[in-house]
Specification:
By secondary structure, the chain is an alpha+beta fold. It has six helices and five strands. The structure holds FE2/S2 (inorganic) cluster (FES) (2 copies).
């Protein structure tokens, strides 16, 4: 069936079985491979995307559920030839970009968190950052540098604003 939705700011239509995993639609049908697969069971957060601004596990999302909605993937945050988002820069600066499996999901969850901070005017603390990335697992190096990176980005503004400075 034809499924129309907004993908990274552009109106998009895909022809997909309604119950196909949206992760597969992104990677295989649309060629957007920045979103990774880890567990495939909704446990690790590697496949995190934003749907109407909320963090969602694409591996558990039936394609039909994006109909008429706004989807953002990691590709939306920076152009391969252009500057990285402020969060991506901050994660690099703090050595919080640790591996290619967990980092994409961490960036998406962190982006949603930074937007929430901006909308509410709240100040980030370790606890709130840990809560924001609670659905994103790292099984090897730990979370302290990731938290440091998100905190650094929060002190500098939202990723989207900074990406186009
Ligand atoms: S791959 Fe989707 S939550 Fe692990
Ligand atoms: S799983 Fe990516 S750094 Fe641990």
């Amino acid at each position: 069936m034809k499924i129309t939705f907004e993908l990274n700011g552009a109106l998009t239509t895909v022809d997909s079985p309604p119950l196909a995993r949206f992760l597969d639609v992104l990677r295989d049908t649309l060629g957007l491979t920045a979103t990774k697969e880890g567990c495939g069971e909704g446990e690790c957060g590697t496949c995190s995307i934003l749907v109407d601004g909320e963090v969602v596990n694409a591996c558990l999302l039936p394609a039909i559920q994006v109909f008429g909605r706004s989807v953002e993937t990691l590709e939306s945050l920076s152009d391969p030839a252009g500057p990285l988002s402020k969060l991506q820069e901050s994660l690099l600066a703090t050595d919080g970009a640790q591996c290619g499996i967990c980092t994409p999901g961490m960036v998406m969850a962190g982006t949603a968190f930074l937007r929430q901070l901006k909308a509410t005017g709240a100040q980030p603390c370790d606890r709130s950052i840990r809560q924001a990335i609670a659905g994103n697992l790292c099984r090897c190096t730990g979370y302290s540098k990731i938290i440091e990176g998100i905190k650094m980005a929060a002190a500098q503004g939202t990723p989207q604003e900074s990406a186009h400075d």
